[in-house]
Automatic annotation (TrEMBL):
SMART domains: PGAM. This is Histidine phosphatase family protein. PANTHER family: OS09G0287300 PROTEIN (PTHR47623:SF1). InterPro entries: His_Pase_superF_clade-1, His_PPase_superfam. The lineage of its organism: Bacteria, Bacillati, Actinomycetota, Actinomycetes, Micrococcales. Residues 25-39 have a biased composition (Basic and acidic residues). Coiled coil: none annotated. It comes from Janibacter alittae.
Length: 177
Protein backbone atom coordinates (compact mmCIF):
# COMPACT_ATOMS: atom_id res chain seq x y z
CA UNK A 1 0.00 0.00 0.00
CA UNK A 2 1.34 3.44 -0.86
CA UNK A 3 0.90 6.33 1.49
CA UNK A 4 0.94 10.03 0.85
CA UNK A 5 2.70 12.60 2.97
CA UNK A 6 -0.68 13.47 4.48
CA UNK A 7 -1.71 9.94 5.53
CA UNK A 8 -1.96 10.26 9.30
CA UNK A 9 -2.49 7.92 12.21
CA UNK A 10 -4.05 9.21 15.40
CA UNK A 11 -3.77 6.96 18.45
CA UNK A 12 -6.11 7.84 21.31
CA UNK A 13 -5.16 6.09 24.54
CA UNK A 14 -6.99 6.24 27.84
CA UNK A 15 -4.59 5.98 30.77
CA UNK A 16 -4.31 2.52 32.36
CA UNK A 17 -6.00 1.57 35.65
CA UNK A 18 -5.16 3.93 38.49
CA UNK A 19 -5.46 3.94 42.24
CA UNK A 20 -8.54 5.43 43.83
CA UNK A 21 -7.94 8.90 45.19
CA UNK A 22 -6.94 8.96 48.85
CA UNK A 23 -8.62 11.45 51.17
CA UNK A 24 -7.36 14.92 50.32
CA UNK A 25 -5.26 13.68 47.37
CA UNK A 26 -5.26 15.77 44.22
CA UNK A 27 -6.78 13.69 41.39
CA UNK A 28 -3.77 14.53 39.22
CA UNK A 29 -1.48 12.68 41.65
CA UNK A 30 -3.12 9.26 41.33
CA UNK A 31 -0.64 6.56 40.25
CA UNK A 32 -1.18 3.41 38.25
CA UNK A 33 -2.00 0.19 40.03
CA UNK A 34 0.15 -2.88 39.39
CA UNK A 35 -2.57 -4.10 37.01
CA UNK A 36 -2.50 -0.68 35.30
CA UNK A 37 1.24 -0.96 34.73
CA UNK A 38 0.67 -4.37 33.14
CA UNK A 39 -2.16 -2.94 30.98
CA UNK A 40 0.13 -0.18 29.74
CA UNK A 41 2.93 -2.63 28.91
CA UNK A 42 0.39 -4.74 26.98
CA UNK A 43 -0.61 -1.66 24.98
CA UNK A 44 3.05 -0.91 24.27
CA UNK A 45 3.65 -4.46 23.02
CA UNK A 46 0.47 -4.30 20.92
CA UNK A 47 1.55 -1.01 19.32
CA UNK A 48 4.91 -2.59 18.45
CA UNK A 49 3.15 -5.64 16.96
CA UNK A 50 0.98 -3.30 14.87
CA UNK A 51 4.06 -1.44 13.62
CA UNK A 52 2.91 1.81 15.23
CA UNK A 53 5.68 4.08 16.45
CA UNK A 54 4.94 7.60 17.62
CA UNK A 55 6.23 10.73 15.92
CA UNK A 56 4.58 13.00 18.47
CA UNK A 57 3.17 12.22 21.92
CA UNK A 58 0.75 14.56 23.69
CA UNK A 59 0.08 13.55 27.27
CA UNK A 60 -2.13 14.89 30.03
CA UNK A 61 -0.09 16.12 33.03
CA UNK A 62 -1.76 13.63 35.41
CA UNK A 63 0.57 11.15 37.10
CA UNK A 64 -1.41 8.18 35.76
CA UNK A 65 -1.12 9.33 32.13
CA UNK A 66 2.61 9.99 32.42
CA UNK A 67 3.14 6.59 34.06
CA UNK A 68 1.08 4.94 31.31
CA UNK A 69 3.32 6.48 28.66
CA UNK A 70 6.47 5.43 30.55
CA UNK A 71 5.28 1.80 30.66
CA UNK A 72 4.40 1.87 26.95
CA UNK A 73 7.90 3.08 26.15
CA UNK A 74 9.41 0.43 28.46
CA UNK A 75 7.49 -2.21 26.48
CA UNK A 76 9.37 -1.17 23.34
CA UNK A 77 7.03 1.24 21.60
CA UNK A 78 9.14 3.80 19.77
CA UNK A 79 8.22 7.22 20.97
CA UNK A 80 8.99 10.81 20.32
CA UNK A 81 9.60 13.16 23.20
CA UNK A 82 6.51 13.26 25.41
CA UNK A 83 4.88 16.67 25.38
CA UNK A 84 2.91 17.38 28.55
CA UNK A 85 -0.25 19.14 27.40
CA UNK A 86 -2.20 20.65 30.31
CA UNK A 87 -5.32 21.12 28.18
CA UNK A 88 -5.69 17.32 27.98
CA UNK A 89 -6.40 16.91 31.70
CA UNK A 90 -10.10 15.96 31.84
CA UNK A 91 -10.53 17.55 28.41
CA UNK A 92 -13.72 17.33 26.40
CA UNK A 93 -13.78 16.12 22.80
CA UNK A 94 -13.55 19.67 21.41
CA UNK A 95 -10.47 20.39 23.54
CA UNK A 96 -8.80 17.15 22.40
CA UNK A 97 -9.50 18.02 18.77
CA UNK A 98 -8.00 21.49 19.29
CA UNK A 99 -4.81 19.99 20.76
CA UNK A 100 -4.43 17.45 17.93
CA UNK A 101 -4.90 20.20 15.34
CA UNK A 102 -1.69 21.75 16.72
CA UNK A 103 0.39 18.62 16.02
CA UNK A 104 3.49 19.08 13.93
CA UNK A 105 2.82 18.64 10.23
CA UNK A 106 5.99 16.50 10.16
CA UNK A 107 4.31 13.98 12.48
CA UNK A 108 2.56 11.13 10.70
CA UNK A 109 1.66 9.27 13.91
CA UNK A 110 0.34 11.23 16.89
CA UNK A 111 -0.42 9.57 20.22
CA UNK A 112 -2.70 11.31 22.71
CA UNK A 113 -2.80 9.97 26.28
CA UNK A 114 -5.79 11.26 28.20
CA UNK A 115 -8.95 10.57 30.12
CA UNK A 116 -12.59 9.52 29.83
CA UNK A 117 -15.14 10.70 28.95
CA UNK A 118 -13.47 13.17 26.54
CA UNK A 119 -11.18 10.69 24.80
CA UNK A 120 -13.88 8.09 24.01
CA UNK A 121 -16.21 10.84 22.83
CA UNK A 122 -13.49 12.26 20.56
CA UNK A 123 -12.86 8.80 19.06
CA UNK A 124 -16.56 8.32 18.34
CA UNK A 125 -17.02 11.77 16.84
CA UNK A 126 -13.87 11.62 14.71
CA UNK A 127 -14.82 8.29 13.10
CA UNK A 128 -18.62 8.63 13.27
CA UNK A 129 -19.17 5.01 12.26
CA UNK A 130 -16.56 4.84 9.50
CA UNK A 131 -13.96 2.08 9.51
CA UNK A 132 -13.68 -1.38 10.97
CA UNK A 133 -17.01 -2.82 12.16
CA UNK A 134 -15.32 -4.97 14.87
CA UNK A 135 -13.41 -1.91 16.12
CA UNK A 136 -16.65 0.11 16.30
CA UNK A 137 -18.38 -2.75 18.12
CA UNK A 138 -15.62 -2.75 20.77
CA UNK A 139 -15.71 1.04 21.03
CA UNK A 140 -19.49 0.93 21.53
CA UNK A 141 -19.01 -1.47 24.47
CA UNK A 142 -16.92 1.13 26.31
CA UNK A 143 -13.47 2.65 26.56
CA UNK A 144 -12.01 1.22 29.77
CA UNK A 145 -8.62 2.16 31.24
CA UNK A 146 -5.81 1.17 28.89
CA UNK A 147 -8.05 1.03 25.80
CA UNK A 148 -6.62 2.40 22.58
CA UNK A 149 -8.32 3.60 19.39
CA UNK A 150 -6.30 3.84 16.17
CA UNK A 151 -7.76 6.23 13.60
CA UNK A 152 -6.63 7.07 10.06
CA UNK A 153 -6.90 10.52 8.60
CA UNK A 154 -5.69 12.05 5.36
CA UNK A 155 -4.83 15.73 5.43
CA UNK A 156 -3.05 18.33 7.52
CA UNK A 157 -3.55 17.97 11.26
CA UNK A 158 -4.79 21.55 11.35
CA UNK A 159 -7.80 20.49 9.21
CA UNK A 160 -8.81 17.48 11.31
CA UNK A 161 -12.52 17.59 12.08
CA UNK A 162 -15.16 15.38 13.60
CA UNK A 163 -16.38 12.81 11.06
CA UNK A 164 -13.10 13.11 9.08
CA UNK A 165 -11.29 9.99 10.30
CA UNK A 166 -11.70 6.23 10.05
CA UNK A 167 -11.53 3.92 13.08
CA UNK A 168 -9.07 1.28 11.97
CA UNK A 169 -8.41 -0.66 15.18
CA UNK A 170 -9.50 -0.76 18.81
CA UNK A 171 -7.52 -2.62 21.45
CA UNK A 172 -8.33 -3.59 25.00
CA UNK A 173 -5.35 -4.49 27.18
CA UNK A 174 -4.92 -8.15 28.01
CA UNK A 175 -3.66 -9.02 31.47
CA UNK A 176 -1.62 -12.16 31.83
CA UNK A 177 -2.87 -14.48 34.59
Amino acid sequence: MTTSAEDRTLVLLRHASAESAAAGQDDRERSLTDAGREEARDVGRWLVEQGIGCDEVMCSPAQRTRETMAEIAAAGCAEAEVEIEHRLYNAGADDILAVVREASEDANVVLVVGHAPGLPTAASLLADGDGSAPAHDLLAEGFPPGAVAVLRYCGPWSDLAFDAATLERFHLPVLTP
